[in-house]
Amino acid sequence: MKIKFYLNKKEIEIEVDPTIRLIDLLREKLNLTGTKEGCSIGECGACTVIVDGKAINSCLMLAYQVDGCNVITIEGISEDGKLHPLQENFLKTGAIQCGFCTPGMIMSAYALLLENPNPTEEEIKDAIAGNLCRCTGYKQIIDAIEVSAKELKG
Amino acid sequence: MINLNCKIETPKNIDELLKLLAVENFNSKILAGGTDLIVGKIQGSKRFVDTELLIDINKIEELHKIDLIDDKIIIGASTTFSEIENNKIINEHLPLLKKAVSKIGSLQIRNRATIAGNFVNNAPCADSVPPLLVYNAELELISFGNKRTISLENFLEAPYKTQLQKSELVSKIIIPVPDKNIIGDFYKLGRRRAVAISRITLAVLCRIENNSFDDIRIASGAVTPIGKRFYEIENFTREKRINNDLLINLSQMLGEEILKITGLRWSSAYKLPVVQQMFYQLLNNIVIKK
Amino acid sequence: MNKEFSVIGKSVIREDAFDKVTGKAKFADDYKFDEMLYAKMIRIKATHAKINSIDFSEIENQKDIYVITANDVKGKNLVGLIKHDQPIFCNEKVVTPGDVIAMIVGEDEDKLEHLAKKVKVNFTPLPTLTDPTKALDPDSVLIHPEEKSNLIIHHPLRKGDIEKGFSESDEILEQTYTTQLIEHAYIEPESVIAIPKEDGIKIIGSIQNPFTTRRIVSLATDLPLEKIEVIQAQLGGSFGGKDDTMCILSARAAVASLKTNKPIKIKYTREESILESYKRHPYILNYKVGYTKDGKIKAMKIDILADGGAYCSMSPFVTWRTVVQATGPYEIENVHTDVRAVYTNNPYTGAMRGFGSPQPIFAQESLMDEIAIRLGITPDEIRRINGYKNGSVTATGQKLQNHDVNILTVLNKAVALTNFSNKWKEYKKEKSVLNEYEFEKPILKKNKFIDPKKLYQKGIGLAVSFRGCSLGAEGLDETYCYMSIEKNGLVKMLTGLAENGQGLRTTLIITAAETLGIIPDKIQFLETNTSLIKDSGPTVASRGTIMGTGSVKNAAEILKERLIKIVKKGFHLDDNDVIDFRENLVFSRKKGLLTNFDFVCQLALEQKENLTAIGYYKSPEVHWNEHNGQGDAYFTYVYGCQVAEVTVNIGTGEVFLNKITAVHDPGTVINRLGALGQIFGGVTQGAGYGIFEEITHEDGMIRELNFDQYLIPTAKDIDEIKPYFVEGNDIYGGYGAKSLGEPTLELTAAAIANAIRNATGKRFFNLPINLEELVLGKKIRPQNLNRGSL
Ligand code: FES
Ligand code: FES
Known about the structure:
The structure holds three protein chains of three kinds. Chain B is built from twelve helices and 14 strands. By secondary structure, chain B is α+β, with helices and mostly antiparallel strands. Chain B folds into three domains: 7-56; 66-176, Uridine Diphospho-n-acetylenolpyruvylglucosamine Reductase, domain 3, CATH 3.30.465.10; 199-289, CO dehydrogenase flavoprotein, C-terminal domain (Enolase-like, domain 1). The N and C termini of chain B lie far apart (55 Å). Chain C is of the alpha+beta class. Chain C contains 19 helices and 30 strands. The termini of chain C are far apart. The complex binds FE2/S2 (inorganic) cluster (2 copies). Residues 37-40, 42-47, 57, 59 of chain A line the site of one FE2/S2 (inorganic) cluster. One FE2/S2 (inorganic) cluster (FES) binds next to loops of chain A.
């Protein structure tokens, strides 16, 4: 099946087997290995990417379903080699330990800030409740998102 | 790399879809959000082992919207939980449904999972069921050349079994707009603060007039094999004066009803006392709010 | 000690963080190679069984599919970190459901999945042993008959005269506690690739200890160590959990790769990961304590049984830490402890963050509160009466010296920060506020309904601990560091200690930067590769910081010494001038600012000075008598106190974690961001241990195989964590830095348990204190393994 979609702001056209998952298209076919797989059943959020502005689990979506959509992955949020404020603040607040949850976590935060530039702490927690992190205890991640929201508002 | 190993069709409109469903010799399943189906397929769940064809309904706009027509709220079958949670009509008229769907899974799941997908397989822990039951939801089922309406309650037949025929599709959920004076609440108990499968869910809608219940509707999920309305308790309650004894009495009755259905099982030791306690608390909250 | 530093203690961004926020960081499964094949494990649904035959006939004629069995293992099929009791492929019998019988290898993962079902294994089920309390019965099933007994290890400890101690006591309290099986739940499942090389093999994987992996791969393949190169990919969490399992997976991949001469990747699904990987030991802990009316503990008799599961793994060391620390940080004259680990057919257990301490802390800290309550004093008072002071003697007969024994300092700080005593008295219940329910009469009597105003009950509880640093008498304890300075002033360093995702490298970079007087950006950490550096022992037992900083500081000091000489020569300074390196600049005491660091490195080149060095750090001598459990177990200790504030819904048994205050003395804090992260992460894991995490099994078969059933805390489960550091002095390690990773985790469950007691008036003896435990005082489980959603 031939599909056409925007991936990290570039339009691509590709032939996909309709029964593979989006995560496999990204990781195996397109070599975008920033998106991680931790559980394959929609529980850990490591595979989170953004499809048409919404955070979704790429392990629970079929690849062809992004036909005509706008997909953003961790590889696509920094511009001209400049880190996105979320990336910058994840670094600064110590939001990263092993880093395996980080791409998914940043994508969930990115989707949150798209929709809600002024999130409360509770709203941030709700947005990342589907992203498990075993290392950080979440605190510094929440801080990073809070600071980024402030910076993005300018 | 995981492959679902089956055929996929993506009909563009209802007509195409119904024709596909009408094909007898294919073992097909509807693919909407995929959050249940893809997991089931990957894990080799019995429900999907024989599935040869997936019919993806995401391209069909008609199945994907929320409308208020006359005094009915119509929710398209493939409307996602997030869309329901953030919809004005739902917020205004169906607060229990909003509350229930906002507690399902994670945001990523709610962005994909659909309302019909939540109950078509009739799992006991489908969180949207108790609120839909107390809102007297009806379903529109369509098939090639046919259309019928059935109450959700009748649709849910037995655990993992429904009235849905092989060639049929749940197309809409139809909910009469509740009376303005109706109040109520939804309660969910899970093992964790977020992204938890429900251990107990309860939904109560009522109208309180002169300190008595003028109308009350009660439903539960996860404590009974399928989501359930409790008519006997509802009938008993009507026009009774509200006081602590009544609330206790109702809670005991709920316990008895559930016990009748489930008998004493391993989980009863915990769930039976707790469901009575929490029903009592829920009633208290509603009465106090009033 | 002067604790004024220029880099140490500041917040420094991790050296590897940039790659991690951009998705560039390469974890094991992100590596791909030409012609790479995948391997699929063959298992059977049995807990204990004799294998009669394995029939591959249905797949044998498949093109490009290889079968790998024990016959392909050229070296030893039985391996293990301590005892060689774990087969790489189980060709004779399985002793636990995670066991792998054989592997099939091919290009297409999906096809392998399909073909695996066609392998027919004929087996005879054997009687199973899943109750550890029956393991030592004379007629018990033997898990490893060649061992003659199911006893893995017994650690006795005898101090003073236990009977005399009890006779001098006014009261005696005896209680039994249990803890559960716990999954590490690193978010990255195991993955490894073996790549054939001209004369040897290269392994890249999610490996915790590259050197151990190399040793096991060498055993299995019969290749000498130097022909095996092990590279640690970015590790997606480990917590002690990617050791034995990864060694065996690496060995399997290596065996397959040698047979096929192709790169072989093994990647586990979450289900396989939970099924096969080892876990944290469940313990049964019996404590009998004698104390006087004034609250002085006179005697403690402890009997602990650890379920080691099907293989020995690290059980002997895990339980050794338990025997050393089982009394808690209390000075007790008469102690009599027995800790045993036994084999069963259950999932095997080994190293996990905490390493034999969270279990006894739960028991001992619960007991301390019970004693306080019986004596009518507060929990902090009983600990002040008995807690270690400088010069106290531990249960192993060790005198605590050469460092600040800060147990009461951290306790007092935590008590002050939380207004502990007042809250504790305010929330305290004279008797249990929880209902008793009768299973047979499930309809509640009127008086059982909870007054809505009393549904939520608040509680506060604390727990304290001491913890030995590094390996102690477990084994040889030394580390190495190679360091070189390039002519452009760039410092490269390499240690034999592996990064586990916790930020160890950053800590070591800071240590080098501090010593050399440069900024951390100038230091580059080289990949850990077993071919390049000597084994520095495993990154376990929170030894990374204390041992690593020791060798890094040593290397940096050697180089600095030389740099000073170079400066003096280059600038023609007096011999007695004092040279200072600060923030990339170089100062002379007499002449002030001289130049910058880079220039000195160029000078070195001109003067033909060698700017490479090997740093070395060896832990001070410790000794141990295994017959009576006496000796200096560890060369130094750290101390911590955590306070949990909770709200309990006494109707449902839900525990809301409002605030955890964590006060720790880790010695010097090297990297503040990293140290805070260790507290937040450790407390969160500890909280999961306290209230919901649990692997359960039915006759050895695990129920919770993925994150839908095995629940770990989400962002919403703890409202607030408040960290606080007390930086005690110590003569050991680089700059007095000790350890933090494990202490943060070991206390939380115990503090929560005490807070629940304070809130409800009822003591809970079994972890986790989940919904059923709280409401019914026991665990209830379904009789079969069918999951609700299937
Ligand atoms: S891998 Fe998709 S949610 Fe875990
Ligand atoms: S940083 Fe390791 S899982 Fe989040």
